[in-house]
Amino acid sequence: MNKFDEYKFFAQSTQFLTDKRQSATQTYLTVNSAIFAVLAFLIKDLKFTNWDLVIITIPIFIAGMLVCWIWRRMITQYKQLINWRYDQLMKMERVMPDSYQIYIKEWEDFYKQRSGKEKFGFSRLEIILPILFMILYVIYLSGLILATALINGQH
C-alpha cells in the first residue's frame, strides 16, 4: 500500500467514525424522546394519582439519566478518537509531496484556538445535548414531586 492509499483509507475510516458518532447522537435523541413520551403517557393517560405516579416514574427518570450519561461518555470517546485520527491525517499530509493539506487548512481555519474567536465543532454541541436532557429529567421529576406534594397537601 503506498502512502496516498494509506492516507485515503485513513481519511475514509475517519469519516466512518464521524458518521457513527452522528448516528449514535440520533439514536440517543430517539431513546430520550421515547422516554419522555412514556413519562407523558404515564402522567396523562394512566391517571395514576398521589405518590404512586412518582414511585412508578422514578425508575424511568433514573434510566433516562443513565442513558444520558452513557451517551455523553460515548460522544466524548468518539471525539477523542476522531481528534487523534485527524492529528494522524495532518502528520501524513505534512510528509506527502504535492499535498493540498486539506486537513491542516481545515484545522487552521476552523478548529485552532485563537483569542477572541470561538472554536468550531459539532462534537461540542453533541456533548451539551445529554447534559440538557439530564437537566430536563431533573426539572421534570422535581416538578412532578412538587405537584404531587401540593396536591396531597390540599387534601
Number of strands: 0
Shape: elongated
Terminal residue distance: 78 Å
Main beta sheet strand tally, sense and closure: none
Features of the shown structure:
4 helices, mainly alpha, 155 residues
Description:
This protein is mainly α and 155 residues long. The protein contains 4 helices and no strands. The N and C termini lie far apart (78 Å).
Write the layout of secondary structure elements.
Layout (H helix, E strand, L loop, with lengths): L2 H42 L5 H46 L6 H10 L10 H33 L1
Helix pairs in contact: 1-2, 2-4
Task: Write a brief structural summary.
This protein is an all-alpha fold and 155 residues long. 85% of the residues lie in helices and 0% in strands.
